[in-house]
């Protein structure tokens, strides 16, 4: 048996049981789901009826629990499953969630917290202020160590095929750390400006804000930091590793090749790139029109690569890979992309005026574009190249540009926004039309395209409907130019027998390791994947560099933590459910107004200004909370940050269990008539606890809307208790008392405050409680009997309460500066889910049932499982502590009677007694 | 600001002590009023101070770790922690010292919260100056602190439980199950107490008598429990963990060795004064009497030979008033529950509840809802406007201003008036005297602290259970009985206890055996040994509470209090007298 007792929940009840059982000599494990033991009590201001400081009462118990020689505390952990074993004990599975901080190394210095770029509502302060994603829960937390909240990867980061931490640079921009944002992108690829200008931005498609008024303009923020970097600096500001003497040849200088070169050069490799064209950049320069990606942006990005000493030979096509190896390169990466256009296969392709889209775009980028003034252009295809070609044709003066596509508009592989822009610029799109034959005149010039209508058939393997021809639907489309953009393919015959052994366009490399045969040969990018886009190619380049580096260092490529081992993306719906309402902001950055029939190839998107960038980044919802911006990694003096941490599973054998998981507080927004969540000056009792606490979020007791001292303060008792309308007929027991306590504390802090309590009965039941009630009355709290019907906000954000006044038999209204909802408790029935086999019985209200309450309070329906505190019904702190004592003796009796313990009954005393804390106070 | 300590008496002139001083801000509790930085500046250059720093919470885990690290780095041999009362955190900081390898008794805690910041919230500068003096004094004392080792005593694995109601019975069962012996002492002839007289208990409907029977059977099955009925505890002697209680059972007296004592002597039902709400009249009964009636006679309720057609209840009789300021907690729920039993037997009975605040707390609220559903009428009277009762021959007339109908005066003619009476502390002077039990303002026995040490009393080894501490329901009493059993077990199951060594010691050379100290000791912890001429006093360390009463009584100055020696006290006083710049 690993532990005699498992205590689930480290609040006041759990701690008390653990200490008592530890004192008795049993080995106890406390599993707490929060990052600290202490539960809710430590967050309170003072405690009734003694008005002791809550921290002062809780922290000795927290320290005693954490330092008890017989008690082991595991925070950040939840019991996942409990099953009975054969000997009266239990098998327990515990999940310990990751803090992303090495607890042994962390010194609690809070440097990570100061550096963190993400602020979220501080749940430890009732959401009244913010905290960082990297933080220490509260000043008395035990352990006093940082954690990073990161429930999952942000959807934008998750969506990036290039492996760029999109959320990270957005949050850096929001914090004004533009160079850091640039460096974060640069960490993945040198093509910062290029992606900022021409990426299709799958991140934005994934952005949770897209479900509101529109996604965060993530791509343009990248463009912004790239421009800013270029304007200020120009050089990459990256110090490469010492040269390691190894050399790598890269064939092709497109996005995959450039990215791989950058990564390898940074790691100390000597990199030589070979480019067939006369300038580097591949498709970035040859295929993407300049209005989307200006040459100077690309040139600056390439300078990032050359600044690290990468040599780029242009006009240097490679035909013999073996020769490179022989020349002394330790590895060769082929990143030659998809330079071949797929042919239509229709007759008439040879006609003058019929041209593949890629050739067309390349000619235009080379300054050799045809004059299309007055011409009728038909572009065949529905991909991005087709759209680029069509929009280029418009810019070259075409009288009419028509795009013919054989499927539906919704099936077009082109990026939706590009299609919209094309339409805005005057491109016509004719869907479900397939070309049959280009018809020429006697001079061999194309004059028309013979087409046929298509209809949607059965879905094919891509999920789209297979286009089927409509018999007899042939028609002619008169035109002067036909541009075929129906797909791109790698040059399968470039390296015969090596890269494409099957000759079918499928690269002969392992799709994960990108390694081919021979082993020194790697391939990446579109050459491997087929035509994709810049971001995918960048991702391939990173992967190739990672693998080549490992291979050259002699490390296995098989089983190891993979590149970009990210946790699953957090669901957008989950993100949006975090708050009840969102204010919609200006939808996006001002988009360039589409120009009909534009001329020239000037960049369409204007640069964005710094205020625009900050505003745009400010819209980020911080889906994954931690943005992975990496600032904490840079500042942590103890190297304690570890994003590689994952959930740990512990399997334990225990003899007995104390469930002390507490209760939930009533969510006040379930009484919408009270306006909680909408009116900033309507608070819950727990929030008021924080305002009154010595570790309060504000400098004094101030009202949240304007920081003014509230003068008129109202309490609305029984919010969510004794209330069938919210399904809780029970009295929550302690709300009267904490309200009476707060009344007194408020009147102590604000001498001029007038406190009015709208109540039904004041239930001061307990030792000294009635006297405490009398004290509140003497101090001046006013008690008005009757329920509050509704709360409305005035323009000055004060609050009008409509209430019944039973003593006077009237309904009335009164204005207050601040309203406190005395919320009660709800059962925390989650605990029932962990018990497998024997179910734990719940009572009619979903509290854990104490089946033999009259004789054995704290015993549950499962022998050996006990409850302590509010998990089995509303209890205040003294009652929870007594109850926890009852549970402790119940456990002791159970353990002593266990047959499995008969031989191993522990002798107590000895080692544990050395601690002075265990000494009997005089 | 500067401070200077004049050289202390001879003992202070040792060197080589290496002390750390920590000034706690306690969030805003201290920091809002005392300028911790100024305090640090004033004391950092005092002799032997090697480390001086402030902390937001000295008790926090981080700061504790810093202390441990400081010890390692600076080779410290003592701390001064200026924070709250030692009552709260002395154990905490001694524990830190133990972890750091420093003798725990070389930790001096200076109280700059209760005794400084909280008392001088109107004078921040003055509070800061006072804190400087207090900390200087603490440092002066710490320089002289000697290492001490706790006293280890073997304990007796037996518990005396006084009171055989449900709390005491259940405590006994728990103790026996945990492996301890129990001596259960009950004043009356049988076990069970008040619950034995009860019918159905709310909210689960278990009959009180059945519960008591079950407990009796469980006790009978445990040979570790010896039951003494018609018995009283008449004396207590001994020291921590090893007491002797004298039990008088009939004419016989026995001494029983025990390690802990649980007091579970219960309560008395409030007996109204004659004429209080018509009490004494034939148609007026108390709640316990009504419950007794329900228990004894099945079927519809009758009174004076006739069926009861209407009942009025007046709540808070004897509670929440001038004589008994407290709320008796259980009576609202008990009365509502009783009215439900009445309604079950005869749904046609009209029942009127005249109350102030209806306190059916927690789950008991459903009883209240159920009773209204069954037709009980609730009328609320003001605290200062109780109902008037006129007793007639055929009925009793109750007049009340009902706040629920805007203060309308209503008159109820009822066959029976039930006074919902609460609990009062039981007359227990003998036991309170024997055990020196502390009694609170409400007359019930007092615990040390309702949250930190809820079942312990200031009298070592004496614990509380059940309604002798405060009004409780049956289940709550049982729960507190188990909690007391847990506390006793946590002390005794180890077999040994460690006691505070801050006790008096006698210098045998200077002691002339005059015996003055023996008379001065309130705990009987000093004994004289030897014969005339060579007599000298000895302190029984386990019995000494460290109160210090003996030391000034000694004419030869032979007695000192470890941890509070004369030299330390002198240095403390001098420390308080440091010059502090305004």
Detailed description of the structure:
The complex is a heterodimer of chains A (922) and B (582). Chain A is of the alpha/beta class and 922 residues long. Chain A is 26% helix and 20% strand. Chain A is built from 25 helices and 39 strands. In chain A, strands 1, 2, 5, 6, 7, 28 and 39 form a 7-stranded mixed β-sheet that branches. In chain A, strands 14-13-12-15-27 form a 5-stranded parallel β-sheet. A 5-stranded parallel β-sheet of chain A has the order 17-25-18-19-20. In chain A, helix 14 packs across helix 15 (384-395) and helix 23 packs parallel to helix 24. The model of chain A is unreliable at 902-922 (pLDDT under 50). Chain B is of the alpha/beta class and 582 residues long. Chain B is built from 15 helices and 30 strands. In chain B, the strands form 10 sheets. Chain B has a 5-stranded parallel β-sheet with strand order 8-7-6-12-25, with helices on one face. Chain B has a 5-stranded parallel β-sheet with strand order 14-23-17-18-19. Chain B has a 4-stranded parallel β-sheet with strand order 2-1-3-4, with helices on both faces. The longest helix of chain B has 21 residues, at 124-144. Chain B is globular and about 90 Å long. Mean pLDDT of chain B is 92; it is low at 1-13. Chains A and B meet through helix 1, strand 4, helix 2, helix 24 and helix 25 of A and helix 2, helix 3, helix 6, helix 7 and helix 10 of B.
């Amino acid at each position: 048996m690993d532990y005699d007792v498992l205590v689930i929940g480290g609040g006041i009840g759990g701690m008390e049981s653990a200490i008592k059982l530890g004192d008795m000599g049993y080995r106890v494990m406390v599993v707490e789901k929060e990052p600290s033991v202490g539960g809710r009590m430590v967050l309170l201001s003072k405690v009734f009826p003694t008005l002791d400081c809550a921290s002062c009462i809780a922290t000795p118990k927290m320290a005693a629990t954490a330092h008890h020689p017989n008690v082991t505390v595991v925070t950040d952990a939840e019991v996942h499953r409990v099953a009975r074993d054969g000997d009266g004990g239990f098998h327990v599975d515990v999940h310990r969630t990751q803090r992303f901080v090495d607890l042994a190394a962390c010194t609690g210095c809070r440097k990570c917290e100061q550096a963190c770029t993400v602020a979220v509502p501080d749940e430890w302060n009732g959401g009244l202020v913010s905290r960082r994603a990297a933080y220490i829960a509260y000043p008395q937390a035990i352990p006093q160590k940082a954690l990073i909240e990161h429930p999952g990867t942000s959807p934008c980061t998750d969506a990036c095929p290039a492996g760029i931490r999109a959320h990270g640079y957005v949050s850096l921009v929001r914090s004004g750390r533009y160079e850091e944002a640039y460096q974060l992108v640069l960490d993945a690829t040198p093509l910062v400006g290029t992606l900022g200008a021409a990426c299709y931005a799958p991140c934005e498609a994934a952005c949770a804000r897209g479900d509101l008024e529109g996604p965060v303009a993530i791509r343009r923020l990248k463009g912004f930091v790239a421009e800013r970097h270029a304007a200020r600096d120009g050089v990459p500001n990256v110090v490469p590793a010492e040269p390691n003497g190894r050399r790598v040849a890269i064939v092709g200088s497109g996005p995959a090749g450039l990215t791989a070169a950058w990564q390898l050069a940074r790691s100390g490799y000597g990199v030589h790139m070979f480019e067939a064209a006369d300038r580097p950049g591949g498709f970035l320069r040859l295929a993407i029109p300049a209005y989307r990606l200006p040459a100077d942006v690309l040139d600056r990005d390439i300078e990032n690569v050359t600044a690290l000493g990468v040599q780029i030979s242009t006009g240097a096509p490679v035909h013999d890979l073996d020769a490179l190896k022989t020349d002394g390169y330790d590895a060769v990466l082929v990143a030659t992309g998809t330079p071949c256009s797929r042919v239509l296969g229709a007759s008439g392709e040879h006609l003058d005026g019929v041209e593949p889209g890629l050739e067309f775009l390349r000619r235009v980028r080379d300054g050799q574009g045809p004059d299309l003034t007055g011409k009728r252009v038909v572009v065949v295809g529905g991909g991005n190249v087709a759209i680029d070609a069509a929009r280029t044709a418009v810019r070259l003066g075409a009288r009419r540009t028509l795009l013919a596509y054989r499927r539906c508009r919704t099936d077009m592989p082109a990026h939706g926004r590009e299609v919209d822009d094309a339409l805005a610029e005057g491109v016509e799109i004719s869907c479900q039309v397939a070309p049959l034959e280009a018809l020429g005149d006697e001079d061999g010039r194309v004059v028309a395209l013979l087409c046929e209508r298509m209809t949607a058939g059965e879905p094919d393997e891509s999920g789209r409907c297979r286009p089927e021809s409509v018999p007899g639907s042939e028609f002619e489309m008169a035109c002067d130019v036909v541009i075929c953009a129906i797909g791109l393919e790698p040059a399968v015959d470039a390296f015969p027998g090596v890269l494409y052994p099957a000759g079918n366009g499928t690269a002969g490399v392992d799709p994960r390791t990108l390694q081919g045969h021979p082993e020194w040969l790697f391939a990446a990018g579109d050459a491997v994947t087929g035509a994709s886009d810049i971001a995918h190619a960048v991702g391939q380049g990173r992967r190739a560099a990672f693998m080549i580096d490992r291979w050259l260092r002699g490390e296995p490529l098989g089983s190891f933590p993979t590149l970009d081992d990210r946790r699953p993306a957090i669901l957008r719906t989950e993100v949006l459910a975090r708050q009840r309402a969102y204010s919609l902001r200006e939808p996006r950055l001002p988009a360039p107004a589409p120009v009909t029939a534009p001329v020239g190839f000037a960049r369409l998107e204007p640069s964005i200004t710094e205020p625009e960038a900050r505003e745009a980044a400010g819209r980020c919802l911080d889906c994954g909370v931690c943005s992975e911006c990496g600032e904490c990694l840079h500042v942590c003096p103890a190297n304690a940050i570890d994003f590689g941490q994952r959930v740990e599973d512990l399997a334990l054998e225990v003899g007995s269990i104390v469930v002390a998981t507490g209760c939930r507080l009533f969510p006040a927004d379930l009484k919408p008539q009270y306006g909680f969540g909408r009116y900033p000056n309507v608070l819950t009792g727990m929030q008021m606890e924080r305002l009154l606490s010595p570790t309060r979020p504000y400098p004094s007791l101030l009202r949240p809307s304007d920081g003014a001292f509230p003068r008129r303060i109202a309490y609305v008792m029984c919010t969510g208790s004794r209330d069938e309308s919210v399904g809780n007929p029970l009295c929550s027991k302690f709300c009267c008392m904490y309200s009476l306590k707060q009344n007194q504390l408020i009147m102590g802090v604000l001498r001029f405050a007038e406190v009015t309590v709208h109540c039904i009965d004041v239930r001061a039941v307990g030792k000294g409680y009635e006297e405490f009630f009398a004290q509140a009355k003497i101090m001046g709290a006013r008690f008005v009997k009757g329920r509050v019907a509704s709360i409305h906000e005035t323009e000055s954000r004060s609050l009008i309460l409509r209430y019944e006044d039973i003593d006077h038999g009237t309904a009335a209204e009164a204005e207050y500066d601040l309203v406190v909802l005395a919320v009660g408790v709800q059962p925390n029935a989650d605990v029932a889910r962990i018990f497998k086999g024997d179910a734990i019985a719940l009572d009619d209200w979903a509290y854990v049932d104490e089946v033999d309450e009259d004789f054995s309070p704290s015993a549950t329906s499962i022998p050996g499982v006990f409850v302590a505190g509010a998990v089995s019904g509303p209890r205040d702190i003294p009652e929870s502590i007594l109850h926890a004592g009852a549970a402790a003796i119940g456990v002791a009796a159970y353990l002593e009677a266990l047959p499995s313990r008969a031989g191993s009954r522990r002798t107590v005393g000895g080692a544990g007694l050395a601690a002075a804390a265990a000494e009997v106070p005089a | 600001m500067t401070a200077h300590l004049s050289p202390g008496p001879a003992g202070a002139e040792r060197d080589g002590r290496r002390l750390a001083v920590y000034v706690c801000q306690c969030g805003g509790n201290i920091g809002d009023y005392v300028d911790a930085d100024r305090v640090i500046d004033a004391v950092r250059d005092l002799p032997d101070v090697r480390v001086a720093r402030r902390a937001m919470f000295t008790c926090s885990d981080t700061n504790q770790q810093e202390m441990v690290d400081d010890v390692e780095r600076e080779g410290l041999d003592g701390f001064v922690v200026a924070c709250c009362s030692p009552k709260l955190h002395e154990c905490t900081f001694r524990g830190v010292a133990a972890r750091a390898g420093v003798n725990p008794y070389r930790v001096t805690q200076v109280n700059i919260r209760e005794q400084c910041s909280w008392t001088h919230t109107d004078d921040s500068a003055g509070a800061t100056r006072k804190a400087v003096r207090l900390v200087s004094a603490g440092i002066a004392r710490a320089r002289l602190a000697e290492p001490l080792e706790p006293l280890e005593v073997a304990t007796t694995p037996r518990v005396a439980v006084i009171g055989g109601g449900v709390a005491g019975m259940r405590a006994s069962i728990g103790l026996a199950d945990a492996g301890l012996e129990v001596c259960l002492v009950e004043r009356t002839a049988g076990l069970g107490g008040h619950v034995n007289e009860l019918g159905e208990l709310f909210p689960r409907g278990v009959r009180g008598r059945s519960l008591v029977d079950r407990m009796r059977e469980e006790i009978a099955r445990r040979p570790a429990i010896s039951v003494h009925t018609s018995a009283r505890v008449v004396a207590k002697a001994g020291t921590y963990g090893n007491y002797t209680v004298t039990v008088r059972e009939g004419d016989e007296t026995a001494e029983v060795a025990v390690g802990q004592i649980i007091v579970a002597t219960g309560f008395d039902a409030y007996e109204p004064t004659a004429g209080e709400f018509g009490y004494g009249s034939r148609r007026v009964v108390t709640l316990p009497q009504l419950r007794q009636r329900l228990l004894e006679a099945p079927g519809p309720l009758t009174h004076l030979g006739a069926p009861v057609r209407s009942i009025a209840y007046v709540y808070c009789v004897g509670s929440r008033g001038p004589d008994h300021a407290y709320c008796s907690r259980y009576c609202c729920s008990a009365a509502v529950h009783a009215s439900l039993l009445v309604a079950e037997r005869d749904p046609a009975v009209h029942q009127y509840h005249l109350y102030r605040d209806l306190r059916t707390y927690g789950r008991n609220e459903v009883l209240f809802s159920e009773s209204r559903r069954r037709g009980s009428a609730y009328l609320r009277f003001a605290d200062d406007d109780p109902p008037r009762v006129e007793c007639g021959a055929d009925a009793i007339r109750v007049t009340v201003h009902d706040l629920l109908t805007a203060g309308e005066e209503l008159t109820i003619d009822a066959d029976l008036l039930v006074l919902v009476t609460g609990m009062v502390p039981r007359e227990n002077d003998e036991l309170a005297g024997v055990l020196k039990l502390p009694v609170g303002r409400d007359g019930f026995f007092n615990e040390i602290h309702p949250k930190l040490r809820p079942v312990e009393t200031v009298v070592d080894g004496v614990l509380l259970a059940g309604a002798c501490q405060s009004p409780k329901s049956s289940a709550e009493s049982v729960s507190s009985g188990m909690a007391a059993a847990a506390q006793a077990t946590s002390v005794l199951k180890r077999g040994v206890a460690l006691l505070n060594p801050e006790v008096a010691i006698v210098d045998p050379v200077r002691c002339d055996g005059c015996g003055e100290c023996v008379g001065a000791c309130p705990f009987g912890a000093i004994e004289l040994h030897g014969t005339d001429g060579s007599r000298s006093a000895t302190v029984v360390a386990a019995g000494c509470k460290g109160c210090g009463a003996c030391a000034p009584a000694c004419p030869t100055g032979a007695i000192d209090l470890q941890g509070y020696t004369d030299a330390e006290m002198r240095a403390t006083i001098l420390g308080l007298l440091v010059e502090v710049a305004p």
